[in-house]
Design goal:
Largest sheet: 4 strands, antiparallel
Low-confidence stretches: none
Shape: globular
Distance between the termini: 26 Å
Number of strands: 4
Strand order of the largest sheet: 2-3-1-4
Structural class: alpha+beta
Radius of gyration: 14 Å
Number of helices: 7
């Protein structure tokens, strides 16, 4: 079933020059890039993006890290995009992610895990509205 999802290449990956390689992994998998944007999150935008985590102890760290430099946001489309993307990116803690996954190959820790991806249709709808300034 064709669907859309969002991923955000985080500041650590952008600063390391990994954005092109990460995007190409999704293209080689067969996903179409529908929308692509490079920007820097404002604090307000980051707080809205990560709103689901606002009561968690790591919320401040998430906001601080995602606003620390430019990110690349992409909306992709293809069969089972949400589930497949989550498998491709690997475990949140990059030291637990298997080699061959994006985080397993490039991640350096918990926050510095190079990529975020929507985990559900509702997350995709919320996060893509925030990232692409859609009301």
């Amino acid at each position: 079933m064709a669907e859309e999802t969002l991923f955000i290449i985080k500041p650590d990956a952008v600063s390391r020059g990994l954005a092109g390689d990460i995007i190409s992994r999704f293209e080689r998998k067969g996903f179409a890039v529908i929308n692509l944007k490079m920007f820097t999150f404002s604090k307000e935008q980051a707080e809205k993006f990560y709103n689901v985590h606002k009561d968690r102890p790591f919320f401040g760290e998430l906001v601080s890290f995602i606003t620390s430099g430019p990110v690349v946001a992409a909306i992709i489309s293809g069969n089972n995009a949400i589930a497949t993307t989550r498998i491709m990116i690997g475990a949140t803690k990059s030291y637990e992610a298997v080699p061959g996954s994006i985080r397993g190959d490039y991640g350096l820790g918990f926050s510095e895990n190079v990529i975020h991806a929507s985990d559900s249709q509702s997350s995709f709808e919320h996060e893509s509205r925030v990232a692409f300034d859609l009301s």
